[in-house]
Write a structure and sequence with these properties.
- The chain is mostly helical.
- The protein has helices spanning 4-25, 33-41, 45-53, 60-69, 88-102, 106-121.
- The chain contains 6 helices and no strands.
- The protein is elongated and about 50 Å long.
């Protein structure tokens, strides 16, 4: 069983994921979504970044604040949930990545892997 801090972090990440998907589907660019999310839940970008990474646990005050700003009942963020699987956007991305990977030669595959690694470091 995950720790209470891990459960809070995973639930906060799920709320952020939903927020990001809604904004992207509405035509917003991905850049700036972290800052927009932080503003929505009433914290600084640095505070959200530390909470997201687990460097700063989500305490009671921040937990209630997130729930309030996301229209969730008090205690929602503390409840363990079953993993939801891949979202449609994630499924589309993986299908595209797989098609690209399979449709290129070994040099192209190496470049794709390298690009993804470099892109992931910047996130």
């Amino acid at each position: 069983m995950p720790s209470p801090a891990t459960i809070r972090r995973l639930n906060a990440l799920a709320l952020f994921q939903s927020f990001a998907e809604e904004r992207i589907n509405a035509g917003d660019p991905p850049k700036g979504l972290e800052a927009a999310w932080a503003a929505r839940i009433g914290v600084s970008g640095a505070t959200w970044s530390m909470a997201k990474s687990g460097a700063r646990p989500i305490g009671d005050k921040l937990a209630r604040q997130v729930e309030h700003h996301c229209d969730k009942p008090a205690g929602w963020i503390d409840e363990e949930r079953e993993p939801t699987g891949l979202t449609p956007a994630e499924q589309q991305f993986l299908a595209l990545a797989l098609k690209t990977y399979r449709g290129t030669n070994s040099d192209g595959r190496k470049q794709l892997r390298q690009w993804l690694k470099e892109f992931g470091r910047g996130a």
